[in-house]
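Sequence in, structure out. Go.
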Amino acid sequence: MKLLEINNIKKSFGDLEVLKDISVSVEEGEVVSILGPSGSGKSTLLRCATMLETMDAGTLSYCGEEAVRDVDGRSVYASKHDIKRIMNYFGLVFQNFNLFPHYTVMKNVTDAPIHTQKRDKAEVEQEAKALLDQMGIGDKLDYYPCQLSGGQQQRVAIARALAMNPKILFFDEPTSALDPELTSEILKVLRLLASEKMTMVIVTHEIEFARNVSDRVVFMDDGYIVEQGRPEDVIDNPENERVKAFLNKLSK
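Output:
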């Protein structure tokens, strides 16, 4: 089943065309890594997919439900009521954690399921404890973000996204704000989620991780998808010259 379907997305900021006719879909249980140089449009694609940015043109669907349709070459969004419902299908983990500094770890994780999804508080708290245990930070429930390392904060952010029971999780360079030791912590968590068949779309510069964990790799450059396929094809035997040049530069 296709959880996410994006067709012909275009996005400009003023005169700068950032996304130029991008189409991509994600199947249930699939891990898709998005690679490419800085400024290629990776994060903008993620922000359009999660409706943090408004698309100029193109369509967007989750689980067969249309969030954005095309009318005469322009993107038209569904009603606020429908968008709110559709947004429950996905979670998003940012590179800079975006935790509420004045909330404890427990409140950061439980606040949205209780107040946005109107779920039972005791049930949500029980699930949150299990998630935080799974993330290896079950002993930090009453800590505040400032008392945690970057890796611990990112694990809280992942637990917070999972607490909403999303069908698909987006990660925008989840390790870019972390040092190498903490990076390996977070990649371990992502590997665990992949082994549990969590559907994920990950914007990353971690080539080895993308090779080992992804079902599919999408390579972007200059607002286009220039190559996509199995990691062993795109990373180990790329056909596109831009992809070859980028990977050669990284391996040096």
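Check: The chain has a mean pLDDT of 93. The CA atoms of residues 101 and 220 lie 34 Å apart.
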